[in-house]
Design goal:
The chain is α+β, with helices and mostly antiparallel strands. It has helices at 9-18, 21-28, 32-46, 62-89, 102-119, 172-178, 228-236, 250-254, 283-297; strands at residues 51-53, 58-60, 94-100, 123-129, 143-147, 155-160, 164-170, 193-195, 206-210, 213-217, 223-225, 242-245, 259-261, 268-269, 272-277.
């Protein structure tokens, strides 16, 4: 076997799986032009065209499909062998790419991230914080975190983070000045901080439930934000009453900087879930899963 016979195989298989050079480049952490050049060099060495390329799609040729069917299992065996060595060494490593909304970072990852990175110095964490759902496979992420009902059925999903519920919060100064609402309908006479969903552009309706009674309110207020941390900061600054989920505001409540109101009207929310493709789990992701499982065990249902 010549030394260069394996050159370009990873790029070729990734392009075939992602059906595109740009998506493959994101997954591999290189530029699209670099992936394209690597595949072109492979084609020249093999003397065969592996992909049909158009401006809108990239698909395997007949020769490319036959080559993929032979190469992919062999490459998977090589990858498994490498990961087995990593597992045996007890030191997972590599780039771990995660896609999360800001609330999931604050609630799930921030409490464990420093300890996790200290425990695994060979793992580099790249975190993309965004609200809208993305195809984590197509964009080369190892995992994502979203509310469980938003996760696709073909993904493996694990509950992470504490049990969640809505929290209606305000600063003591605001409540001293404007009074404390005793019923959700009293909020219509208050300054409420509205939240606009970045994905849909809609203003959030506040949900309330007690016993057999449940309803939603579109509250009024002169401040609208689209970021969870800005929402909490605005409540701290006395700009109005906010609707927030728990998970990272507890220290502010414990110190009295925020006050929770209408607690008996606050419904439970779906759990956050870490999700990833059903294929093999790399050691770097397994390490994170183990860390998050410990955190879940300390926050039972």
């Amino acid at each position: 076997m010549q030394q260069d016979q394996l050159d370009g195989l990873v790029a070729f298989v990734t392009v075939a799986e992602e059906k595109g050079f740009s998506a493959a480049a994101v997954r591999l952490g290189v530029s699209a032009s670099a992936v394209s050049q690597t595949v072109r060099t492979l084609e020249q060495r093999l003397g065969a065209v592996l992909f049909n390329r158009t401006t809108r799609s990239v698909n395997l040729t007949e020769a490319g499909q036959r080559y993929y069917e032979r190469v992919q299992p062999a490459l998977e065996l090589l990858t498994d062998a490498s990961q087995a060595l990593v597992r045996d060494s007890g030191q997972p490593g590599g780039l771990l790419r995660i896609n999360v909304p800001r609330a999931a970072y604050l609630i799930v990852l921030r409490p464990i991230l420093r300890r996790f990175m200290e425990a695994y110095p060979d793992i580099t964490v790249e975190m993309q914080v965004e609200s809208h759902l993305v195809d984590i496979v197509a964009q080369g992420y190892d995992a994502g975190i979203r509310f469980g009902h938003l996760v696709e059925k073909d993904m493996v999903a694990l509950r992470v983070g504490p049990p969640l519920s809505t929290h209606i919060i305000a600063s003591p100064k605001y409540l001293e000045h404007r009074g404390v609402p005793r019923h959700p309908h009293d909020l219509m006479d208050h300054e409420c901080i509205n939240f606009r969903f970045p994905t849909t552009g809609q203003i959030e309706r506040w949900e309330f439930a007690r016993g057999d009674e449940s309803f939603q309110l579109l509250v009024k207020g002169r401040l609208i934000v689209n970021d969870a941390s800005v929402l909490v900061r605005s409540a701290l600054d006395g700009l109005g009453i906010a609707n927030m989920i728990n998970g990272y505001i507890e220290p502010l409540l414990a110190r009295g900087r925020l006050v929770r109101i209408l607690e008996d009207w606050s419904p439970a929310l779906p759990h956050l879930h870490l999700y990833y493709p059903s294929r093999r789990v790399p050691a770097k992701l397994r390490a994170l899963i183990d860390y998050l499982n410990i955190a879940v065990a300390s926050n039972p249902k």
